[in-house]
Write a structure and sequence with these properties.
With 168 residues, the chain is mainly alpha-helical. It is 82% helix and 0% strand. It is built from 6 helices and no strands. Helix 3 packs antiparallel against helix 4 and helix 4 packs antiparallel against helix 5. The longest helix has 30 residues. The model has no long low-confidence stretch (mean pLDDT 82).
Length: 168
């Protein structure tokens, strides 16, 4: 019995140590993760409102859309932190935080813009929401660095070309 207790205690110690290491690694960017989670929640709730989902009985709830949103969040977070890890391994620690900051800003823009679009669908007569949506959609790029702005424009152009090809 003592041997089993020792193994359990050893595994608990290992898990706490591992958690401490992971927490220390994410400590410099944890506020970015909080902001990303808040934006994700805003996007999901606005999407549920646009789809007329009733929260108390989940009428009209589409689990597939929610699952896709969770996968998207996982991909955004994973790619961001894999890039941070690579930059950290190259011993450019201060630049890795900057990279995470820019990528999280892009994700925040993405979620906030889509959330506002969903709210403008849910509340079509609310001109304030539509105005904020248009401001966010078209003016946000003005505060981003030039390289990010060019990448966003290129991505939009590629999406338009891809969508244009489907319509023919």
């Amino acid at each position: 019995m003592n041997r089993i207790m020792d193994k359990i205690q050893m595994s608990q110690t290992s898990m706490v140590s591992l958690f401490g290491i992971v927490a220390a690694y994410f400590d410099s960017t944890i506020t970015f993760i909080y902001a990303l989670m808040i934006a994700f929640l805003f996007h999901v709730l606005a999407g549920m409102r646009a789809d007329e989902v009733k929260l108390w009985n989940l009428k009209n709830f589409k689990f597939g859309k929610f699952k896709d949103s969770l996968i998207e969040l996982f991909l955004i977070t994973s790619i961001t932190y894999i890039l941070k890890l690579i930059i950290d391994l190259m011993q450019h620690n201060e630049k890795s935080v900057y990279a995470v900051k820019i990528l999280i800003w892009l994700a925040l823009y993405y979620y906030f813009r889509r959330g506002l679009r969903n709210l403008s669908i849910a509340y079509p007569n609310n001109s304030w929401i539509r105005t904020v949506y248009h401001l966010v959609s078209f003016q946000f790029t003005q505060i981003m660095p030039e390289s990010v702005k060019q990448a966003m424009e290129k991505a939009e152009k590629e999406k338009e070309e891809k969508d244009g090809g489907k319509n023919h």
